[in-house]
Structures are given as structure tokens and as C-alpha cells.
Amino acid sequence: MLEKPMLNFLDFTYAEALQKLSELGMAKFSAKQIFDWVYRKGNYSPGEWSNLSSKNRELFQKNFTLSLPQVLWHGLSKDGTRKFLLKLDDTQTIESVVIAAKNRLTLCISSQVGCAIGCTFCHTGTQGLKRHLNTSEVTGQYLTVSKWLRENVGEDCRLTNIVYMGQGEPLHNYENVRKATEIFLEPQGLGLGQRRITLSTSGLVPQIKKLTDFPPVNIAISLHSAKNDVRSELMPINKTYDLERLFEAIKTIPLKAHRRITYEYLLIKDLNDTPEDVEALSELLTQKESKINLIPFNEYPGSEYKRPTDEKIYWFMEQMSDKGFTCTVRHSKGDDILAACGQLKTQYEKLNLWNSSTSSI
Questions:
Q1: Are residues 132 and 178 in the same domain?
Q2: Quick check: is 226 in a domain?
Q3: What is the pTM (predicted TM-score) of this model?
Q4: The domain spanning residue 267 has which CATH number?
Q5: Structural domain includes residue 305
Q6: How many CB atoms neighbour CB 261 within 10 A?
Q7: Of 234, 233, 321, 238, which Cα lies nearest the Cα of 282?
Q8: Interatomic CA distance for residues 61 and 37, integer angstroms
């Protein structure tokens, strides 16, 4: 008889864990104890969970695993950005990025191996979609990187924020990303605040309409042009879900008081940085519910697009600000290690680093 496959405990929300552990005969408080060891204390060795009975520790080890992604490579940018190449259980690889800012340490999380959206400005898009990440592989990025930072940078080096802006389209992997977000927010677990998590989407209209069922985190829309023809060139998804359909769906997003949607606008030289683009963008968005985040294009090997000059970038920002919009420029970080927006591709996977004695740091 085949043995029952082990379940990865990191795939379960707190409510699901309560149910699973109850089925094994454990008391309800066991879930709280285990979540505390795993998510708050970062201890993944059940044999060391001193406040669980030996019987419960044995039950857990018999039924569950705590498999985490492995760090194959770590790169440190001159600006302090860190990029991690992570290996999953099936040897597929993904990248996660840690971005340092004043009073904040943000983890940029991937949701898929590759991406099916095919944005022409994005390095990840050249991979195509290989598969969705499991819930445990989404939460596992946070746990693995947190552990690495504690052990290699300092015990006080703690992640404070999460952005779903790594490889993949988060809403294409809706259910697993939703569950992972619940785990990130879980008071018995990591207990992150809603304002500390940002979900970014390229504009999957059917999934945007499902956000009424998603935890109320910050929402960012990858817009990049207010003209359908230009946006379709940059983002093939616009051919199916054009600006009219996209903004009808955006109206259904439940916004808490004083919350706004962030519109990410990648500035590309001579393509979407003209006075006509300023006018189109100001007509499309409303000042009250919109925040514009300008992202100067980050060039990568083989890219056909170019970055505008700094003068053009700040001219665009001033034009939108003069029209009453909250408009900021996202300064590129980690571009020297291909860790900036649009540059992720797990380019080291072809080196088969996990077969090298120098692969893991």
C-alpha cells in the first residue's frame, strides 16, 4: 500500500490548520502553539517545540512537512537591495527581492514560475509560464528570506512589508495568493497589517471583480499607458481586457476609507512620456482615488525600450502634480544585479547552481 503523502503545513491558513489538527485529535490550542513556533519564532524543527506534548510532536511529524524554498544564490546591490534565487521542491527556481528604505524593509514576492501575461517590457515575460506557486511557496519566500536575514545580517533585521510585484501575475494564481495573504495577516501568525501588503495586477478583469473576497490590502494596477493602442503594445492582456473593461472592473474594488488605488506607470522614452500621454492619463484617472507611481524603465539585456532622461521623468511628474494628482517617482533599486522592476528572470538557473558546492550561502 502506498503511503499517504505528507502535507506541507505552510499551505494551510489558521482556520484550515485548526481543522486538520482537530482531525488528528489535537486540541484547538495546538494550532496556536504551532503557528507561534513557525511564524513568530521561525522554528521549523518540531522536535524543539517544547510546549507541545511528545505525542502531538510525533503526530505532526508523521503527517506534515515544513518544506521551505532553498537559497541558491544571494546578490547584494550597491544600494543595499538584495536578490535571492530560490529553489523549490521540484527544482524550479524563482527570485525574491528585499528592498531597504527608511524605517521599512520590503520583500518583493513572486507568485508564479515565469508568467503568462507576456508584457513586452518585462524580462520575466520572456520565460513564459511554467507553473503557479503553491501557497507554501508564496509564504515560504517570506519565511526563507527572514531566516536568511536573521542568520546572515542580524537578529534585528526584520521584513516589514510585502509587495506582490515579483515574477508572475498574482491574480492569475488567485486562490493560492489569497490564502498566503490570509496567513501573512493572521494575528496568530505573522500578524502583518493590511497597509503593509500591496497586491499588483496587470489587469485580469474577471479576477479583479473577485477582490470583494480578497483580504483588504493595498491594490496597485500596472497601467503604463492611458491609450489602448500603446497599452496593447506593452501589455498583450489589454487586447482582451482594454481600458474601458479594466476601469469598469476597478470600480468594483472595495476601498476602505482614505484608501486609494496606486497606478504604476512605466515611463519609456518616446513611447508614453509625451504631453499627449499626460493629457490622456489625467482624463482617465480621478485625483481623489488615484495615486500615480512613475517607474523609469529599467533596461535589461536584449530590451528594445529605453529609459527617458531624468529631466523628462521629473517633467512628467510635475505635469501630473500640477493637475492635482498625487504623483511620485519610484527610484530604481538593485538594477546592477537585475533586481529592479521588470528585470527578474532567474537568469542563474541555467548554471545548475544547486549542483555546485558554492551554490548556497
A1: yes
A2: yes
A3: 0.89
A4: 3.20.20.70
A5: yes
A6: 17
A7: 321
A8: 14
CA torsion sign, 242 to 244 to 247 to 249? Answer: negative
Domain presence at residue 2: no
The DSSP secondary structure of 156-180, one letter per residue, reads T----EEEE-SSS-GGGGHHHHHHH
Give the residue numbers marked as catalytic.
95, 341
Q: For the purposes of burial, counting CB atoms within 10 Å of the CB of 48, is it exposed (0-12), middle (13-18) or buried (19 or more)?
A: exposed
Helix intervals (H) in the chain: 14-23, 29-35, 54-63, 135-152, 174-185, 205-208, 228-234, 243-250, 275-284, 310-322
Do 98 and 29 fall into the same domain? Answer: no
Cα 330 from Cα 354, distance rounded (Å): 34
- In this structure, what C-alpha cell is assigned to residue 216? 483588504
Which has the closest alpha carbon to 361: 100, 75, 167?
75
Across the strands, what pairs with 293?
264, 328
For residue 221, list its beta bridge partners. 201, 263
Q: Which domain holds residue 195?
A: 70-354
Over residues 134-166, the pLDDT tens digits come to: 999 999 999 999 999 999 999 989 999 999 999
Same domain, 340 and 243: yes
pLDDT in tens, 282-336: 999 999 889 999 999 987 777 789 999 999 999 999 999 999 999 999 875 545 5
- 236 and 250 both lie in a single domain: yes
